[in-house]
From TrEMBL:
Signal peptide: none annotated. InterPro entries: 2Fe-2S-bd (IPR002888), 2Fe-2S-bd_dom_sf (IPR036884), 2Fe-2S_ferredoxin-like_sf (IPR036010), 2Fe-2S_ferredoxin-type (IPR001041), 2Fe2S_fd_BS (IPR006058), Aldehyde_Oxdr_Iron-Sulfur (IPR052914), Beta-grasp_dom_sf (IPR012675). SUPFAM superfamilies: 2Fe-2S ferredoxin-like, CO dehydrogenase ISP C-domain like. The lineage of its organism: Bacteria, Pseudomonadati, Pseudomonadota, Alphaproteobacteria, Rhodospirillales. Keywords: 2Fe-2S, Iron, Iron-sulfur, Metal-binding, Oxidoreductase. This is 2Fe-2S ferredoxin-type domain-containing protein.
Length: 170
C-alpha cells in the first residue's frame, strides 16, 4: 500500500504493509534511526514524533493512517551541525545521560512548549482561564508520558525551563 508522507520537510512515498506502524516505517523503511523503539506499547515515549505539530507515540499508530501528514522526527528538529535550542540545553544540563529516551523527550518538549504558548491547559494548570505558568509541576505533568530510566528528570526540566525563558525574552 502506498502512503505519501512529508517527513522532516521531504516528500516520502512508502510502500509498506498496511499493518506497519509509523515507528517501524520511520526506522525500517526510511532509515531514520533517531526515533527509538522502547516498549512498543505506548508507555515509555521513546518513539514520540510530531505529526502535524502534535506529539504522538509512533508505535501506536499505523503509517498508512498518516497519508499526507507532516511528520517531524528528532532528525528534523536538529542535527549535529545545527542543534535546536532544546538539544543544546539538554547537552548543557546533562538531560540525556544514556540518551535512549532523548529523541522522544526532545520531540515531546518541543510540542509541549508550543502547547503552552497556545494556552492549552493541563491537569496541573492552576488557572485554566489564563496562560499556563511554566512551573516544575506543569512541565512534569506534560512530560509524564516520556520516561527516563536514568532518572534525568531534574536535568530535563532545567533544560526545558532554560529554553522557555529564552522564548519569553524574545
Amino acid at each position: 500500500m502506498n502512503t505519501d508522507l512529508m517527513v522532516n520537510g521531504q516528500a516520502q512515498r512508502l510502500d509498506a504493509d498496511p499493518r506497519t506502524t509509523l515507528l517501524d516505517a520511520l526506522r525500517n523503511y526510511l532509515h531514520l534511526m533517531g526515533t527509538k523503539k522502547g516498549c512498543d506499547h505506548g508507555q515509555c515515549g521513546a518513539c514520540t514524533v510530531l505529526v502535524n505539530g502534535r506529539r504522538i507515540n509512533s508505535c501506536l499508530t499505523l503509517a498508512c493512517m498518516h497519508d499526507g501528514d507532516e511528520i517531524v522526527t528528532i532528525e528534523g528538529i536538529g542535527g549535529p551541525d545545527d542543534l535546536s535550542a532544546l538539544q543544546q540545553a539538554f547537552i548543557a544540563h546533562d538531560g540525556f545521560q544514556c540518551g535512549y529516551c532523548t529523541p522522544g523527550q526532545i520531540c515531546s518538549a518541543t510540542a509541549m512548549l508550543d502547547e503552552i504558548a497556545a494556552g492549552w491547559a493541563s491537569h496541573a494548570t492552576k488557572n485554566v482561564a489564563s496562560l499556563p505558568g511554566l512551573t516544575v509541576e506543569e512541565i512534569s505533568e506534560r512530560m509524564s508520558g516520556n520516561l527516563c530510566r536514568c532518572s534525568a528528570y531534574p536535568n530535563i526540566i532545567d533544560a526545558i525551563l532554560e529554553v522557555a525563558a529564552g522564548k519569553e525574552q524574545s
